[in-house]
Write a structure and sequence with these properties.
417 residues; 21% strand
């Protein structure tokens, strides 16, 4: 087996120069494209437990599968980008391809090398036939690959030793196992999407106000969209216990400069009997990132109630000041019961303009404006595709998801306000 090169856009300081008439990739780049796509992803075949990767099925000479045998799961193309770049985060810039080349590979149109003979002709569509793994928009929002799953800890016993060694030398990795969440949501720094642009503008506005108060020269906010993404750095994880209530007598709290992820324990942890002996893990917890983790006294966003019945779980989560626009709000439910909510807050700013008046906020107890994520764990495995939710005018998101009856995968749901 001679794997190729895999799925994500690499952040390169000195992009490879190619003729404008076509987009090509070297043999090392193609090796990584095929290796990553074929090793870390596989078809969602319902009868296969654990799931086998595309290259593993080829090496084991397993029979072809049909559409009726597939489980119907989806993976967003943005996650494929993130996994690809996460794998290459320690690699030399020239071993990765640009975003345009990555999508050419996913579509099956990546051109051969310009100065080398082609070693491996396979493309993404060779490993995942388009008639079984359609690339389409899910619920009219995210573009996804259907009947497709991510494998963060793949079986590598079938891979030749020389291929594994080549992979490690090119990527700088010592092992092939990936952190599931870090890989799926890794910021590769080459795409300036709407949420990131808005967050950059909000940061620039805050810096402008702060420098103006200090008598300094404010930066040009209009130039924010032109700042290179590679200047953005991932904040270190910050773990803080959640206080039982806000401290009285403090009318003014200083916002923390670090808005990295924070782990906050639920104030009242259900017992195993209340979970009907389903939850065997540690106490339930809620993880916050972005603006939701910026307040020192603990965020208002993300207070969660969870209920259990015979065949389903109910959760309610407080999201005050959160936009309900589908382009800026999403909720993902995974098969193991993990719920991940992403959105953008609009309140909590330092200055408020109302009816031609400017108010300088003297207290700052709401989360500052900007993107955020909240994640928590339901008591047991679920059926993500059997999920209904409602984001009410009271700022409370309510969702009901059925308990697992058979093996399934994660799905992305949208809500109506």
């Amino acid at each position: 087996m001679d794997p190729g090169s895999g799925s994500q856009d690499l952040c390169v300081d000195e992009p490879i120069t190619l003729p404008k008439s076509r987009v090509g990739a070297s043999n090392d780049q193609r090796f990584l494209l095929i290796f990553i796509a074929g090793t870390y992803f596989g078809p969602d075949v319902k009868a296969e437990v654990p799931t086998k990767s595309a290259l593993q099925r080829i090496a084991l000479e397993l029979p072809p599968y049909t559409h009726d045998q597939l489980g119907g799961s989806v993976v967003r193309l943005a996650e494929i980008e993130s996994v690809y770049f996460y794998v290459l985060r320690r690699a030399h810039p020239n071993v990765g391809v640009k975003l345009q080349s990555l999508y050419k590979f996913l579509q099956g149109h990546l051109a051969p090398p310009t100065k080398e003979n082609l070693d491996d002709e396979r493309q993404f569509t060779t490993l995942f036939p388009p008639d079984l793994h359609r690339q389409a928009r899910f619920k009219g929002t995210y573009k996804v690959v259907e009947n497709f799953v991510f494998i963060n800890d793949p079986d590598i016993t079938y891979i030749k030793a020389e291929d594994i060694e080549r992979f490690k030398q090119l990527t700088g990795l010592t092992e092939l196992r990936l952190d599931r969440d870090e890989a799926r949501f890794y910021r590769h720094g080459r795409r300036m999407d709407r949420d990131e642009l808005k967050q950059a503008r909000l940061i620039a506005i805050q810096e402008t106000h702060q420098q103006a108060q200090n008598g300094g020269v404010p930066p040009l906010i209009s130039d924010v969209s032109q700042e290179p993404q590679k200047r953005r750095r991932k904040e270190p994880v910050q773990t803080v216990p959640m206080p039982p209530q806000a401290m009285p007598g403090k009318e003014k709290s200083t916002q923390s400069k670090s808005i990295g992820p924070a782990m906050i324990l639920l104030p009242s942890s259900p017992t195993e009997e209340q979970w009907s002996n389903i939850l065997k893990a540690t106490k339930p917890s809620i993880a916050f990132t972005g603006s939701a983790a910026a307040r020192q006294v603990g965020p208002v966003i993300g207070l969660v109630d969870i209920g259990v019945c015979e065949d389903a779980y109910l959760f309610r989560i407080a999201l005050p000041g959160v936009k309900k626009d589908q382009r800026e709000f999403s909720c993902e439910v995974e098969c193991d019961g993990k719920v991940v909510i992403r959105g953008t807050t609009t309140t909590g700013e330092q200055k408020v303009l109302k009816n031609s008046r400017t108010f300088q906020m003297q207290t700052q107890h709401l989360c500052p404006p900007g993107p955020f994520t909240v994640s928590f764990q339901l008591p047991g495995p679920v059926e993500p595709r059997e999920f209904s939710g409602n984001f009410g005018a009271d700022g409370v998101l309510e969702g009901i998801v059925m308990k697992e009856r058979e093996r399934t995968v994660s799905a992305c749901l949208t809500f109506e306000s």
